[in-house]
Amino acid sequence: MFYINMKNTLRILLFSVMTVFISSCKDDTIDLPDNYVAFKTSEVGLTGADATLELTLTRAADAAVPVTVTLTPSGVEYGKHFTTEPAATNNVISLTIPQGQSSATIKVTPVAGILLSGTETLNFAITTVTAPTLIGLTKDLKLTFAKIISQGSQLTLAAKTAESNYANNVYADLSGNSTHLNSRKSWNLAFTNNSQFRVVLNHSYQTSAAVTTKSDITQVTLADTATTADIYLSGARLTDPATLPLVDYWDGDLTKTVFAEVSATASENKVYLVAFEGSNTPKSQWYKVKVDRNGTGYKVQYAKIGETSVKTVDITKNADFNLSFLSFANGPVSNVEPKAKEWDIQYGYSTYNSGLNTPYWFQDFVLLNSIGGAQAAEVSTSTVTYENYAESHIASTTFLKTRDAIGSKWRVTSGSAVGVTKDKFYVIKDPEGNVYKLKFVNAGIGTDGGERGKPVIEYKLVKKA
Fold first, then answer.
1. Cα–Cα 20 to 30 A to 114, which of 73, 80, 337, 445?
2. Average pLDDT over the chain, rounded to whole?
3. What sign results for the dihedral spanned by CA atoms 298, 275, 282, 266?
4. 361 Rama sector, left if φ>0, alpha if ψ -120 to 50, beta otherwise
5. What band does 278 get if pLDDT is binned at 50, 70 and 90?
6. What is the distance between the alpha carbons of residues 90 and 198, in angstroms, rounded to a whole number?
């Protein structure tokens, strides 16, 4: 009898445990927070080649999320003055946020050659979304076809693609609430558009270079690698201080580039050997490059080091931009950076200091538009909090004009405090003189939330220029 009662008791206990477990699992499903779709910001200005508008979910989609966005143009007409990607039909855009993703974008591009007064606007409204996803608070966005001075917003610096967390460089314009994407591998060399004649290596493509003793590019062969500094940056050499002169200095000082300033006398300009992709480039894939002046611009000769056929291109200076760009594969490249005054910081992949004063390659790196005139300062929250920083604090804030003023200091990737640093924020003086305070919300590192390769920044206008 006792045995039977014990057996029944065990059955009851097991049933109770299973019931609690099943109820717990069921409760977990029910208790998931609602998922909302909304625009990342409510206002954007369009002054460059295009504008990218971002729609975000509060969490990654459990299943694909179809979204309908309605356009209301004022003073402009679809197809005649602008187009969108995805395309609109009768001023309605249908897009889908893929399963597992938390955002999608709409790209707006003005038609080339149009003349606008600057008063034209384009309103976007999220009109439908498939259940159970809901429409969030920021369901409307106003795009102005002229520069705006933002009061502040949040932006996602979406460098990540399906292939890589750092496939793109992201340029952010705080005053315009806008970002501009460009593939980090789309160019090899850049050329200054100011009064100087400087050549810049692609810092985000693991680029290194060294000068040869020759001025005639046709005379440079694989044999010259034996008498030129080794630009093959293997893992072991990344701790060798002798490799420092093989990269442009990371503070952005244009007098510290590997290439000497281009002389007006062609015979004084030496041929350089250039490699990219860091330690993955065999010598046969290195390039030889000769840069001369061509009036107010540049003449560039280049070829793979073992080739006898040399390509020659002219690079024209354009004062609206900091730099003009060249791809060894595709020739001159446009639309890499926004105009000089229309971006403040760049997020992505970069060459930087390993800590041993040797080149090292970082992801999650933030560069300042130092050539364009932007400045930045790091502020400790022990001095003043982000919320309390005001115009009265600007006079006592020490701004830096170096490209690495922010760098990698905004996040920690090892140790006990992994993630976005909470004890500091930044103050940005943009090229127009507007002052913004900026903090990083997340980096997708550790437990700080977010997604690696898509950090979120928050900023507020402190003083208008």
1. 337
2. 90
3. positive
4. beta
5. low
6. 49
3-state secondary structure of 267: helix
Place of tokens 């609206």: 320
Determine the Cα–Cα distance for residues 87 and 224; give it in Å rounded to an integer. Answer: 52
Compare 150 and 50 and report the one with higher pLDDT: 150
| Number of H-type helices and E-type strands within the chain | 1, 31
pTM of the predicted model, to two decimals? 0.83
Residues 128/68, Cβ–Cβ less than 8 Å? yes
CATH of 36-148, one of 3.40.50.300, 3.30.1490.20, 2.60.40.2030, 2.60.120.280: 2.60.40.2030
DSSP 179-203: EEEEETTS-SEEEE-SSS--EEE-G
**pLDDT recorded at residue 27:** 45
For CATH 2.60.40.2030, list the domain ranges present in the chain: 36-148
d(CA 287, CA 303): 6
Say which residues have a Cβ less than 8 Å from residue 118's Cβ, sequence separation at least 6: 144, 145, 146
Residue 78: burial class (beta carbons within 10 Å; 0-12, 13-18, 19+): middle
Q: 280, 319, 310: which is closest to 292 by C-alpha?
A: 310
Residue 232 in this model has a pLDDT that exceeds 80? no
Give CA–CA dist 249/258, Å, rounded.
Answer: 8
How far apart are alpha carbons 216 and 325 in whole angstroms? 23
**Block residue for tokens 């943009």:** 430
